[in-house]
Amino acid sequence: MFSVGLLWSLVVLVVFTTATPTPAEEGRIVGGEVTTIREFPYQVSVQLHGEHICGGAVIGDHFVLTAAHCFEVLFPTEDYSVRVGSGEHATGGHLLSLRQVITHGGYNPQSHDNDLALLILNARLNFTEHLQPVPRATLVEPPTMDTRLVVSGWGLQAEESGTGSAEIGGGVSPTLRFVDVDLVESDQCRRAYRQVLPITQRMICAARPGRDSCQGDSGGPLVGIPAQGGPARLYGIVSWGLGCANPKYPGVYTNVAAFRNWIDAQVGAWGWNGLLAAWSGVQ
Ligand code: ARG
After folding, report:
1. CB 18 within 8 A of CB 236
2. Cα(220)–Cα(253) distance, rounded to whole angstroms?
3. Residues 45, 217, 269, CA angle at the centre, nearest 5°?
4. Which of 73, 218, 242, 253 to mutate to test the pocket of ligand 1 (most atoms within 8 A of CB)?
5. For residue 249, which atom of ligand 1 is closest to its CA?
6. Backbone φ and ψ of 123, nearest 5°
7. C-alpha closest to that of 203 among 240, 232, 233
8. Among 5, 100, 157, 257, which has the minimal tally of Cβ within 10 Å of its Cβ?
9. In whole angstroms, what separates CA 68 from the centre of its chain?
10. What residues contact residue 283 under an 8 Å CB cut-off, 6+ apart?
11. Active-site residue (options: 52, 69, 104, 112)
12. Displacement of CA 190 from its chain's centroid (Å)
C-alpha cells in the first residue's frame, strides 16, 4: 500500500541518507502536466474504502495490473474498487468492484522484488475512447534509450514526512498527470542503488532531471512508444524509489515483460474457472 511504500522510503532515508530532500519530493507526478483520460485510457485508480491508494493499468476486459505493495496490508476484496474511464480519481467514469486480488507469490516487501498484482474485475469492461487496454511489453523487444517513456498518475501533493503517518487524504492530485522519462540502463541504476537495494531483472529504471513518479503513483503505468514506431506498450509499473526526482536515484518500475508467463497463467486459470463455473451452472 502507498502508506507502507512511503514509510519504507522514510526508513531508507533515515538509515542511508546522505541525500538531502529536494523540493521535488513535494511533487505529485513530479515535473509533469495535467492530462485527460482520453490520452491515457488504460489508467485506473485503485481505491480502498473509496479512497485512491494506487494507480493501475487496464490490460484486458477483466484485468488490471498494479503493484503488489499496494496490498501489503490486505483488506477483504470487497473493500477495494477500481475507477476506470476518468481523469479524476474521485468522480466520473465507473467505479467497479473486484472479484479477486492476485499478488505475485514472489513479492518481497523488503527488496520490492516481484512487485506485481493482477486485479480481476467483477464486470466485463466496455471499451470506449475513455477506456482501453494497453498491450504488454515482451522480453524480445525491450525498451531502448530512445523509447519515449511516459508515466502517469494522481500521486501525492506532498510527502507528509513530518508526522510519520502516511495520510493520503488531501494529498493526491485530483486530476491525472503525466511526465516523460528516459530509460536508465540497469548497470547505471544498480550503481545508483548499490548501498540501498539490489536492482533485479524484474525491475527497470527511468529518470529525467526534475521529473519522476512519486508516492501515490504506485501501481500506475509506465508506457513506451517504441522508437521504430508501432503501438504503445506497457513496460513498467510504478514500484519504488528513494525520494522523488532525486538526481541520484532513478524511479524503479516493475519490469512487465519479465512477467508475461505469470500474467498469462493467471488470466488463463481465471478463464478456465469461469468456464467451469458456467458449465456447472448449466448442469
Ligand atoms: N512506492 C511509491 C508509492 O507507493 C512509489 C514511489 C515511486 N518513486 C519514485 N521515485 N519513482 O506510491
Report:
1. no
2. 9
3. 55
4. 218
5. 10
6. -115, 155
7. 240
8. 100
9. 9
10. none
11. 69
12. 21
Residues 271, 100 contacting (CB under 8 angstroms): no
Q: Which residue is closest in CA terms to ligand 1's atom 6? A: 240
In the reported structure, the alpha carbon of residue 240 is separated from the centroid of ligand 1 by a whole-number distance in angstroms of 4
Distance between CA 113 and CA 204 in Å, rounded?
Answer: 11
218 belongs to the catalytic site:
yes
CA of 57 to the centre of ligand 1 (A): 16
The residue with cell 483488506 is: 75
Q: Higher pLDDT residue, 151 or 22?
A: 151
Residue 150, pLDDT > 80, answer yes
- For the question of residue 115 being annotated catalytic, the response is yes
Cite the DSSP H helix spans in the chain. Answer: 2-16, 186-192, 260-282
- Output the pTM of the full model: 0.86
Distance 78 CA to ligand 1 centre (A): 25
Question: Under a CB-based contact definition with an 8 Å cutoff, are residues 55 and 168 in contact?
Answer: no
What domains can be seen in the chain, in order of their start residue? 10-262 (2.40.10.120)
Q: What is the pLDDT of residues 95-130, one digit of tens each?
A: 999 999 999 999 999 999 999 999 999 999 999 999
DSSP string for 194-256: TTT----TTEEEEEBTTBB--TT-TT-EEEEE-TT----EEEEEEEE-SSSS-TTS-EEEEEG
C-alpha cell at 67: 503493484
pLDDT at residue 169 is higher than 60? no
In angstroms, the CA 170 to CA 259 distance is 34
